């Protein structure tokens, strides 16, 4: 983990916990993802540039590319006040067709988190696919 702000350790640890909860929710599904997102969250899919609201994206994730495992590497955190920006690589095994074995998928992900009375919640996420290493 690398931080690029002068924020206290408590905020950085809270963001690390939010990121860990996000990975669990990717596997658990729609009902776990939505509470981690602000009501007006947006998700951008690169390179197509599709923009979804939280319900549309969470439903898409579960029905079109359900993850059976997820991890993040190279997490970078910048905290400024009640806003945090994270970048990382997501590595997932994803079910694209129930008749086939899960497919390895990687994404470069940038998330914007906002601190709320209920903890840190996702405000915005941009995902760009990358090919798994050979």
Word description of this protein:
The chain has 134 residues and is an alpha/beta fold. Helix content is 26%, strand content 52%. It contains three helices and seven strands; from the N terminus they run βααββαββββ. Strands 1-4-5-6-7-2-3 form a seven-stranded mixed β-sheet, with helices on one face. The model has no long low-confidence stretch (mean pLDDT 89).
Which terms would index this structure?
26% helix; globular; alpha/beta; 3 helices; 134 residues; 52% strand; seven-stranded mixed sheet
Largest sheet: 7 strands, mixed
Helix content, binned percent: 25-40%
Distance between the termini: 25 Å
Biggest β-sheet: strands ordered side by side in the sheet? 1-4-5-6-7-2-3
Contiguous runs where pLDDT drops below 50 for at least 5 residues: none
Q: What is the string of helix and strand elements?
A: EHHEEHEEEE
> Based on DSSP secondary structure assignment, what is the total number of beta strands?
7
Fraction in beta strands? over 45%
Q: Over the alpha carbons, how many angstroms does the gyration radius reach? A: 15 Å
Mean pLDDT: 89
The outline comes out as globular
> Which structural class do the helices and strands define?
alpha/beta
* Total of DSSP H or I helical runs spanning 4+ residues: 3
